[in-house]
């Protein structure tokens, strides 16, 4: 595990350990770029927040349903791991140090020529830096699943969704990677139904 992923893991796991709501059925690892998020002259910087949803909140909605899986329906009670909108955020500082080590430049810009295929399907990876962070977060989620941390804590496995506000191809890829035991099968089936 690379150093930055270890940092994220060490930030996330104490939060997961604190959660005590027995109705939790899914965990959100929300990675999102916003043009208002800025850091050292870069705009459209990505954030990383974690939260969860409960059976009570979704009204015990069907296994494959909008109410269960669409993040817009979830409580927005999040814990920030990387918060570029917070002054002197340690997570954002660590993110940009990692970007530099990865050789990533022009953070927040997106190549408009490579965003769509010939049929106007979005094939881009979001603004520079977004996809790299998404996959690092996905690897952290995968480690959590492989170590069985959620299953030990709650007595059952549950999916970790690695996502943004939309559900493009890379959310599917990241969530598949994050749930090697098939924990996210219902979420992925819902995505296919969109």
Could you explain the architecture of this structure?
- The structure is a single chain.
- This protein has 194 residues and is of the alpha+beta class.
- The protein contains eight helices and four strands.
- The chain has helices at residues 3-18, 55-58, 66-69, 90-102, 130-146, 149-154, 169-178, 185-193; strands spanning 24-39, 42-54, 79-82, 160-163.
- A four-stranded mixed β-sheet has the order 3-2-1-4.
- Helix 1 (3-18) crosses helix 5 (130-146) and helix 5 (130-146) runs parallel beside helix 7.
- The chain is globular and about 45 Å long.
- The N and C termini lie far apart (34 Å).
- The model has no long low-confidence stretch (mean pLDDT 94).
Topology overview:
Elements: H1 3-18, E1 24-39, E2 42-54, H2 55-58, H3 66-69, E3 79-82, H4 90-102, H5 130-146, H6 149-154, E4 160-163, H7 169-178, H8 185-193
Poorly predicted spans:
none
Shape: globular
- The gyration radius over C-alpha positions equals 16 Å
Structural class: alpha+beta
Strand content is 15-25%
Order of strands in the sheet with most strands: 3-2-1-4
The major pleated sheet works out as: 4 strands, mixed
Query: Which sequence of SSEs, written as H and E, runs from N to C?
Result: HEEHHEHHHEHH
Helix content: 40-55%
Number of helices: 8
Which quaternary structure do these chains form?
Answer: single chain
Could you tell me the number of beta strands? 4
* N-C termini distance: 34 Å
Q: What is the averaged pLDDT score?
A: 94
Please supply descriptive tags for the structure shown above.
194 residues; alpha+beta; 4 strands; 41% helix; 19% strand; globular
């Amino acid at each position: 595990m690379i150093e930055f992923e270890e940092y994220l893991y060490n930030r996330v796991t104490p939060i997961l350990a604190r959660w005590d709501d027995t109705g939790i059925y899914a965990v959100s690892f929300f990675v999102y770029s916003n043009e208002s998020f800025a850091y050292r002259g870069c705009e459209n910087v990505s954030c990383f927040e974690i939260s969860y949803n409960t059976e009570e909140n979704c009204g015990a909605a069907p296994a494959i349903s909008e109410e269960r899986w669409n993040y817009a329906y979830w409580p927005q009670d999040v814990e920030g791991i990387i918060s570029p909108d917070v002054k002197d955020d340690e997570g954002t500082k660590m993110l940009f140090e990692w970007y530099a080590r990865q050789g990533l430049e022009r953070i927040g810009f997106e190549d408009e020529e490579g965003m769509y295929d010939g049929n106007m399907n979005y094939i881009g990876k979001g603004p520079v830096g977004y996809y790299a962070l998404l996959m690092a977060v996905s690897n952290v989620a995968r480690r959590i699943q492989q170590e069985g941390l959620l299953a030990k804590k709650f007595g059952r496995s549950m999916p970790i969704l690695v996502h943004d506000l939309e559900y493009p191809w890379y959310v599917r890829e990241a969530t598949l990677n994050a749930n090697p035991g098939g924990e996210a099968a219902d979420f992925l089936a819902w995505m296919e139904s969109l």
